[in-house]
Amino acid sequence: MVLISIPLVFASLVASSAAHGHVRKWRMNGKSYTTYEPYSQPDFKQPPKGIARFLGNGINPMKDPLSPAMTCNVDSYPAPLMANVTAGSTITATWNSWPHVGPIYTYMSPCPNGRDCSDFLGTTSRTWFKIEEAGVVPYAYASSGLDWATQIMYDAGNTWNITIPKCLSDGPYLIRHETMAIQDSNVLGGAQFYPQCAQVWISGGSATLDIGAVGVQLPGDIQPDDAGVLFDPRKPLTDYVYKAPGSRPIVCPSV
Ligand SMILES: *[C@@H]1O[C@H](CO)[C@@H](O)[C@H](O)[C@H]1NC(C)=O
Ligand SMILES: *[C@@H]1O[C@H](CO)[C@@H](O)[C@H](O)[C@H]1NC(C)=O
Ligand SMILES: [Cu+2]
């Protein structure tokens, strides 16, 4: 028995340590940007020479929604570049792999100095707003007609498309994109969060969104006992609150 069970335990540890993920590539305004690559980048410590912030936790999840690591990951110090992104355009995140079920959602925050994001961590400012979310969503290929957003992402080559609101003011922003894994989320602290941030310069926006009126804090907007966080994955899909945890996505004011 012992001889058999030891290799099995070992195999399952190996499988689970590989079974996480991160955004490998961003596509914005027709340009591709590589990100920090945990474990394969030759210099493991430096931020990427790009727009994506360092992932101090590598491909591993955040477990405490109230920790500052929920903002942009552990040690997410500023990256050297900003991508140019047109307000109203669609950007694409490509994950290296995504082996879990759960929702996908994205927030943004302006960087307060108005020039770049070099002095902004975002952990204490009430300037985050959600721009998109997808939990259990309609999916024609699923037999029930519903599936997790992450299944759609997986079927699309681990890509996820995010439309940047038209109503932003031009300037520097962080984009915070996140998947959540629910396989252990039936207990408090069991949900896994995979947030990561990229730096962008938005232009062409209509400047009609009042961020002061809609802004939330991260950590803060996602709570350990949110219905979308504390959820038993053995329950039917239709029991999941259709939306991701946290506040609802902003709606651009009609002008
Ligand atoms: C963004 O646009 C500015 C102005 O055209 C340019 O100088 C800068 O290199 C661009 N950034 C990137 C990452 O392409
Ligand atoms: C995202 O957009 C790309 C390019 O249009 C497309 O190939 C891909 O299927 C899309 N992904 C999803 C999840 O819709
Ligand atoms: Cu994982």
Automatic annotation (TrEMBL):
It is found in: Secreted. Residues 1-19 form the signal peptide. This is lytic cellulose monooxygenase (C4-dehydrogenating). Residues 20-235 form the Auxiliary Activity family 9 catalytic domain. Its EC number is 1.14.99.56. GO terms for biological process: cellulose catabolic process. It comes from Ophiobolus disseminans. It is an enzyme of class 1 (oxidoreductase). Its cofactor is Cu(2+). InterPro entries: AA9 (IPR049892), AA9_LPMO (IPR005103). Keywords: Carbohydrate metabolism, Cellulose degradation, Copper, Disulfide bond, Hydrolase, Metal-binding, Monooxygenase, Oxidoreductase, Polysaccharide degradation, Secreted, Signal.
